[in-house]
Amino acid sequence: MIRILKCGEVKPEEIFARSVPAVNVEAIVSDIIADVRARGDAALFDYCKKFDKAELTSLAVTEEEIQDALLAVSPEFLRILSRAAANIRRFHEQQKRTSFILNDTPGVVMGQKVIPVDRAGLYVPGGTAAYPSTVLMDSIPAKIAGVGEVVITTPPGPDGKVNPVILAAAYVAGVDKIFKVGGAQAIAALAYGTETIPKVDKIVGPGNAFVAEAKKQVFGRVSIDMIAGPSEILIVADGKTNPRYAAADLLSQAEHDKMASAVLVTDSIELAEAVRDELELQIPALERAEIARASIDQNGKITLNEALAAAHERRRKRDRAGAPRALR
After folding, report:
1. Which residues does residue 233 pair with via DSSP β-bridges, in sequence order?
2. Residue 77: CB atoms within 10 Å
3. How many helices (H) and strands (E) does the chain have?
4. Per-residue pLDDT tens over the stretch 28-45
5. How many CB atoms lie within 10 A of CB 22?
6. 190 with 151: CB under 8 angstroms?
7. Residues 6+ apart with CB under 8 A from 131
8. Closest to 61 in 3D by CA, of 207, 179, 202
9. 105's torsion region: left (phi>0), alpha (psi -120 to 50) or beta?
10. Is the dihedral of CA 123, 129, 132, 134 positive or negative?
């Protein structure tokens, strides 16, 4: 059950403090990367069997599997994906950088040449934590930038298949190749290449602690987007907030990872208790209930802060006084 704490009972730096994994992630990931570099596809097949419980004969997703996935999802879902993809394209097309040359001064030539990378690798979490939005938001900008080839790695289920929503999103986004491999071993394969998976120039996408550590260790060999930590969310709410919505928002991040941290700050003990009760009602209904439970119990917090009321009152006074919008 989530803890309800008074403001003085938790230091600011402890708001997102979380339990530390008992395993040595750095050492485990280092061994996995070395193994993949040494044994290539053979290591990937072994790790798929060990971690994903999948007996694979091929790492590549076939065209037939993609077509089966398109039939498995609803037409309405495909329409939603297409609409989302169009919105993402419209936005990121405005960010496209162009080359230029300045030679208006005799003997002086200056300029900038923008060259897209040849190949980008996108890591996509799989299983019940399947996020088609990750596929769209990472692969579409790459396509707009002119990346030559966009490659996805994503873990298979025990049946050896990739979640159909991931494949459908990859189809809509125009991804070039998809491979059935997850975890640190996928990052190693993208960074160094294997018999089946090509080496890429840049790796992007979210993942668990092992994926994040693997990206950290291969950085320099390849470019990466960032070293992302476990998910976290901070909600600031007063007594008028619907506790069902607040609890659902907390769980939207808590279900990502047992290490995720979900925090609510409020000035209402009534809301704090109502959200706590809502969490207990909603967690059992989640597909990833075990993960959400661990996150909420170990790292979740509700902090009571009476200063929120004073802050709300100061804002109301500014509004009544006609303060400039940027200061409200």
Report:
1. 262
2. 16
3. 12, 11
4. 999 999 999 999 999 999
5. 6
6. yes
7. 124, 125, 206
8. 179
9. beta
10. negative
Instruction: Name the burial class of residue 43, with classes exposed (0-12), middle (13-18) and buried (19+) by CB atoms within 10 angstroms of its CB.
Output: buried
Q: How many C-beta atoms surround the C-beta of residue 269 within 10 A?
A: 13
Task: Dig out the tokens for 321 from the structure.
Answer: 């006084």
pTM score, whole prediction: 0.82
Check: CB of residue 247 under 8 Å from CB of residue 275.
yes
Q: Which residue type occupies 253?
A: Q
* pLDDT tens readout for residues 128-174: 678 899 999 999 999 999 999 999 999 999 999 999 999 999 999 99
Closest CA to 155 of 261, 47, 64: 47
Report how far apart, in Å, the C-alpha atoms of 267 and of each of 106, 220, 302, 308 are.
67, 46, 10, 6
Q: How is residue 18 written in tokens?
A: 């979380």
**CA distance linking residue 278 with residue 245, whole number of Å:** 9
